[in-house]
């Protein structure tokens, strides 16, 4: 990366790490997510950014983002004009993130922030993408587990790119992986597919998936 070549940092890489949090009606979990995320990130580097994406929430999610930004210079937010769905919310975050590496994490603490150091270790080892793989799915209905399983079987059979099973969107991408994703002109985005499709060296980190910290799933069939 430019830094190691003795040039000035490009303007877009202002931070060592960007964390993108897509959020739709997450007022109940956002303060706790912010607390746990900050505790982890502060340990790791001084100039991280937390970039919230408000995906057309109808509760006080946006107000919480505003007040976090007002009290913490590490925080930024993007406010989408309506609810577009998580794929587009993530894309907006990836487009605006200015870190050397970017982490995508759910707001509801089902993706534990405490796993971030392991993602960073994988990055330091030289992997372009480090993704978290769930070894259990606490608090999810049998129907969701069954549909998820069937979905991955189907995808594996019809598509040329293999998408790892039991992997959500929780992952770290280094700058070149993010830049590759940004060049994909796909408007109907299925990010898990695109994350795999771009290639690069990828590493899995296993973890136990907790139930939602609060609130209900926004996932729809
Ligand atoms: N999300 C979003 N837009 C939506 C639906 C969900 O940004 O239209 C966010 C949500 O706030 C959360 C993440 O995507 O941060 C995952 O959503 P959820 O936890 O409801 O999905 P599940 O874990 O049940 O698959
Ligand atoms: Mg969830």
General form: globular
Q: CATH homologous superfamily name?
A: Spore Coat Polysaccharide Biosynthesis Protein SpsA, Chain A
CATH topology: Spore Coat Polysaccharide Biosynthesis Protein SpsA, Chain A
| Number of strand segments | 7
Q: How big a fraction of the residues is strand?
A: 15-25%
Amount of helix: 25-40%
The pLDDT mean sits at 88
Which spans have pLDDT < 50 for at least 5 consecutive residues? 1-11
**CATH class group:** Alpha Beta
Put simply, the count of helices is 7
Q: Compounds present?
A: uridine-5'-diphosphate, magnesium ion
Order of helices and strands: EHEHEHEHEHEHHE
- CA distance, first residue to last residue: 41 Å
CATH architecture level-2 label: Alpha-Beta Complex
State Rg.
17 Å
């Amino acid at each position: 990366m430019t830094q190691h070549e003795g040039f000035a940092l490009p303007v877009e890489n202002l931070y060592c790490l960007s964390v993108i949090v897509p959020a739709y009606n997450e007022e109940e979990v956002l303060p706790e997510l912010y607390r746990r995320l900050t505790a982890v990130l502060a340990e790791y580097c001084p100039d991280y950014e937390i970039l919230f994406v408000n995906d057309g929430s109808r509760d006080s999610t946006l107000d919480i983002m505003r007040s976090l930004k007002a009290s913490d210079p590490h925080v930024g937010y993007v406010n989408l004009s309506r609810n577009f769905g998580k794929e587009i919310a993530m894309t907006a975050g990836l487009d605006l993130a200015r870190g050397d590496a970017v982490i995508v994490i759910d707001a509801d603490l089902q993706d534990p922030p405490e796993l971030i150091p392991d993602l960073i270790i994988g990055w330091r080892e030289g992997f372009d993408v480090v993704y978290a793989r769930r070894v259990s799915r606490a608090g999810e209905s049998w129907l969701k587990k069954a549909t998820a399983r069937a979905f991955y079987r189907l995808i594996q059979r019809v598509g040329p790119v293999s998408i790892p099973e039991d992997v959500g969107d929780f992952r770290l991408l280094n700058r070149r992986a993010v830049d590759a994703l940004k060049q994909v002109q796909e408007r109907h985005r299925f990010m898990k597919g695109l994350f795999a499709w771009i290639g690069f060296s990828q590493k899995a980190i296993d973890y136990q998936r907790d139930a939602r910290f609060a609130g209900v799933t926004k996932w729809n069939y």
